[in-house]
Amino acid sequence: MAVQCVVFNCSDQLDYMAMAKFFKGLASAGAWACFDEFNRIDVEVLSVVAQQISTIQQALEARVERFMFEGVELALRPSCAVFITMNPGYAGRTELPDNLKALFRPVAMMVPDYALIAEISLFSFGFSEAKALAKKITTTFKLSSEQLSSQDHYDFGMRAVKTVISAAGNLKRENPEMSEELIVLRAIRDVNVPKFLQDDLKLFRGIVSDLFPKVKEKPIDYGDLEDSMRKNCLKSGLEDVDGFITKCIQLYETTVVRHGLMLVGPTGSGKTRCYEVLKKALTSLKGKDSPAGTPYEEVYTFVLNPKSITMGQLYGEFDLLTHEWTDGILSSMIRVGSSSTTSDKKWYLFDGPVDAVWIENMNTVLDDNKKLCLTSGEIIKLSEAMTMMFEVQDLAVASPATVSRCGMVYLEPSILGLEPYVNCYLKTLPDAIFDYKDKLQSLFDRYLEESLTFLRNNTKEFVTTVNSNLTCSLMRILDCFFAPFVPKEGETIREENIALVETLIEPWFIFALIWSVGATCDGDGRKKYSEYLRKKMEDEKVAMKFPDYGLVYDYSLEDGGVSRKPNDDDDEDTHTGEVKWVNWMASIAMPDIPPEMNFSDIIIPTMDLVRGSFVLEMLLTNNKKVMCVGPTGSGKTLCVANKLLNYMPKEFLSHFLNFSARTSANQTQDIIDSKLDKR
């Protein structure tokens, strides 16, 4: 007779009562239990667990049919057994107590013979040339690990080999007449190509071509899927860049062979858009046959940020007083998904950094068990329609156990570049500005890439940024300048303003460039960038140059009254029609300071304060989010508080929150809610 074997993934949320329930069931049923990641349980709980296991072992040695376990008499079946697995040295692990170590026989696992395992697995899938193909698979991974760059998201271990074999088995089943070498080559490519950097991809292709010299692979025709993705890109206001579409197809291929996968790449590399475009494309193709012969299914996504909530809120927890179980967000979503009877695909997106603290609980979800183990002892089995996706910037703090369990799709910023951002932005210009689209395009082409390259090579930033982020910042400031040309209800755009657009386009762009691309570097970097920009403007023969003295950061743009609203309180007509660079301090009068004012309350307008306040107000009044960065004592709080409390329009209300390392998402929400009225 077979013996029931239960695999359970342990976590630091487990207490001795939950473990006692397990042991009672094991002893009564005569089942086997494998407790994975056993050393994640708190050491205080492990000491009690040692006593519980000792009680069962003593009863087994005495060969009794019934025994007392924590005050309850239980039937004992002698076939029951407990096994534990663990990875010592990972984050969040504890040393096993000596009284627990004495109860188990340690077995050290050695590196397996990959080639032999691959050979037997390939034979089981019906491959006649299994021995030679297994050797080629293992050699591919061996050479890749030696020749390719070392990246956190690369894994060339047993799980990677197993995934290739599984993919090859599926292809063999779908295409029994296809050459076995071609099947294995395609499986190797499908599983590995999505995760490689562009430079490593060239080396990998060389390795594969050496091992499979006579095999010519034809690309799979994803005609309908590719057309659908391109249509959805354009519908969403995105550029259908070939490299991006390729990544979307790779994501689809990875979802076919893996139920757990990670979208890896820096901010702005297109991770979110990648799965969104694929989701819309698959949903629109519902019912049509894929190249594999199976129909495309509708896709539903469930997105959550795991680091914004506690472990209890994510996975569920017991109430410490009543010992009642409360479901977590993920456990309730998985339970609903696993009980669904439809064939629709369900993607669970975890948008946030991956670390060993929260993701290790999902080890049994991501491996072949496909089970979510809860602290309550409940085990939820995932269905075939469910996929776990993780959207991460990097895997620097993820454990190898996690990396090896997931498929990887790496999105490199160079695949997109900055051109799609610019092209998409130029399509959204207001009608009054649209005639100058080509002029703007020319300015982006001449200044943007070159400025970014100069800054990356010659300056230091207070906060690390990526090129796509700085490009978007540039566009946000341009949006602020273009706001007067977006007609509001009952208003018309002044003809004098439209007449000045041609003169202002270039100064607007240069001002936006300075306070976006050039705004994040330190003082020395600003001096260097100022010199570079002056020379660049001279080379480009810009009509309106900066005055010769000072830095380019020392000047504001006098736009001839374009930015003034028609209802601004002013006695005289502010529309001068004159466009020029003006020193920030030129029109600033020294404030009247009452004799009774506290010394600490006196604010003297400096250039930093004036220009910081101007940029802050311009962005905030146009509903743009702002992050102020700088060294300690540089006046960030003063600048923001002075602007928000004294000089913002009446429709804006401000509230200040002080954060610390202990501030939680719930506390932040409660503070914000306390200032709002429900209607």
TrEMBL record:
Which is one Pfam family of this protein? AAA_6
- Indicate the segments forming the Dynein heavy chain hydrolytic ATP-binding dynein motor region domain, all copies: 1-272
Name of encoding gene: DNAH1_1
Which family does the similarity line name?
Belongs to the dynein heavy chain family.
Q: What are its GO biological-process terms?
A: microtubule-based movement
Q: Which Gene3D superfamilies match?
A: 1.10.472.130, 1.10.8.710, P-loop containing nucleotide triphosphate hydrolases (3.40.50.300)
One annotated GO molecular function: dynein intermediate chain binding
Q: Where is the Dynein heavy chain AAA 5 extension domain?
A: 440-558
Q: What is this protein called?
A: Dynein heavy chain 1, axonemal
- Please name the PANTHER family in this protein's record: DYNEIN AXONEMAL HEAVY CHAIN 1 (PTHR22878:SF73), DYNEIN HEAVY CHAIN 6, AXONEMAL-LIKE-RELATED (PTHR22878)
Identify the GO cellular component terms for this protein.
dynein complex
